[in-house]
């Protein structure tokens, strides 16, 4: 056991083949207990790195584009991040390792990750969005591309709270959510929602998914719609209600 934890791992660019070897071994020796990995979801994220190069003691220089032999790169170009070839390579290597089929790709909604989806064959045109790409080794298998909904909910909440948004000339404002919370505090009751001070002053917990989801809930929208009929402060909250 100690040898396992103290062993040196090869973490050079490319595929971490020790992981692939682990899957191969498990699928061979524990087939019945390991069938759940025959169909998997692949979660990936791009990573920006500081441009530069660093020689090691052997004289090898690191910092240039290097995909570990997966694809040809310009060896004189300094690396800035990962490319879509890595995603395709992982999908292929898993399939070749023992028939492990990637059924879906999930990433957050950053520009780099959305661009990766485009390079893989997904269109981001809102009028025609093919949400899947063919498997590189088995074209009849579709791999579904998903933008992480939890991350999107946090982005939507942050945009509503931090930006000046509007739709068809109507303002979308987080202030209505704040006013709803204030009324609930004054009246010491809640209109069937979970709003609290944590939801309003969320900056220290901005990565909390429940706080974002509970703000953008139908219960909050229903409460705003109810107050719109009885309180002039909510008279122009229609766009905010529709956004939520």
Quick recap of the structure?
The protein has 244 residues and is an alpha/beta fold. 40% of the residues lie in helices and 13% in strands. The chain is built from ten helices and eight strands.
First and last CA, distance: 52 Å
Number of strands: 8
Give me the secondary-structure category.
Answer: alpha/beta
Overall, the morphology is elongated
Overall mean pLDDT: 81
How many H/I helices?
A: 10
> Radius of gyration, Cα only, in angstroms?
24 Å
- Show unreliable segments: none
Helix content: 40-55%
Strand order of the largest sheet: 1-4-6-5
* Strand portion: 5-15%
Largest sheet: number of strands, sense, barrel closure: 4 strands, mixed
Domain Transposable element P transposase-like GTP-binding insertion: 150-244
Protein name: THAP domain-containing protein 9
Pfam family, one: TNP-like_RNaseH_N
Domain Transposable element P transposase-like RNase H: 11-83
Feature tags:
single chain; 244 residues; two-stranded antiparallel ribbon; THAP domain-containing protein 9; 10 helices; TNP-like_GBD; alpha/beta; elongated; 13% strand; 8 strands; four-stranded mixed sheet; TNP-like_RNaseH_N
Describe the secondary-structure layout.
Elements lengths: L1 H5 L10 H13 L9 E5 L10 E2 L5 E2 L21 H15 L2 E7 L3 H10 L11 E3 L7 E6 L1 H14 L2 E3 L2 E3 L2 H13 L9 H4 L8 H7 L2 H11 L9 H6 L1
Parallel strand pairs: 1-4, 4-6
Antiparallel strand pairs: 2-3, 5-6, 7-8
Helix pairs in contact: 2-3, 5-8
What does this entry look like structurally?
With 244 residues, the protein is of the alpha/beta class. Helices cover 40% and strands 13% of the residues. It has helices spanning 2-6, 17-29, 84-98, 111-120, 149-162, 175-187, 197-200, 209-215, 218-228, 238-243, and strands spanning 39-43, 54-55, 61-62, 101-107, 132-134, 142-147, 165-167, 170-172. The strands form 3 sheets. The chain has a 4-stranded mixed beta sheet with strand order 1-4-6-5. Helix 2 packs parallel to helix 3 (84-98) and helix 5 (149-162) crosses helix 8. The mean pLDDT is 81.
